[in-house]
Amino acid sequence: MKMKKPTIFISVLLFLLISFFVRVEKKTAWPGVLPPSPEIEAKAALAKDLVSHEVLFKKNEKEALALASLAKIISALLVLDKNKLDEEVVISQDAVLAPEPSSLKVGEHFKVGDLLAMVMVESSNDAISALVEHTIQKESKDRDWFLDLMRQKAEVFDALSMNFYNISGLDISAEISGGYGSAEDVMKIAESSLGSPLWQFGEAREIISRERIKHALKPTNNLAPELTPLIGAKTGYTDLAGGNLLVIVEYPIGHPLGIVVLGSSEQGRFSDVKKILEWIKSR
Fold first, then answer.
1. What is the CATH superfamily name and number for domain 38-282?
2. Using only C-alpha atoms, what is the Rg of the chain?
3. pTM (predicted TM-score)
4. pLDDT in tens, 94-123
């Protein structure tokens, strides 16, 4: 017995519809069904749309943790408040007494902007020390004055969990960090400073002193090549803090998105941020 044409048509149509929806299901989640939140090493994290201010991911975001070199964001913003980018800074002996060997030479002269690039790209303790020393001398003040300004700056941003004991965030001892703050408050700083020239220095790869000595910059953000377009980033790592990372990326293009992780491992901070970003993109 021959199958009627309408029956054949309906059978073919059902087959095509089923095939289509099976393919769609394999490629993407159904509307309203979110992929599971990523498992990360970090003790605390926050991802936020910096335009709508929507929180996209959070973990212990209000807990104050050791900041490590993320404290330098506040130091650098204050340097920008007090100095012009083309002002000249001389490197003193005190500035190069940081724990690690320095590429800076005593007596070299740099523009403020060049040293800020060194701070943001390779998290140089010597560069931030030279910048703060220059600022203090210009204002005839001392480091306690600058630390008070750092605390006041955090308050202006409503980052009330933050406190600072040195300008760099380096550990003071095995128990005491140079600075503390929550992921939520780090994000407040990122949001409030989004238009600052500070975030424009991340792409610098070389600075040159007045003495014509070239200094190649070594980025501490290993994830940078994968974060395009990248607006800005700051790394931090100490024994006490573990691995910290703040990134501001464009997702979608032209739309700033901030991600911060605190208390991860030296390499885990990069994989944590990558996991969070991929999770946001998959939503």
1. DD-peptidase/beta-lactamase superfamily (3.40.710.10)
2. 24
3. 0.87
4. 998 756 677 899 999 999 999 999 999 999
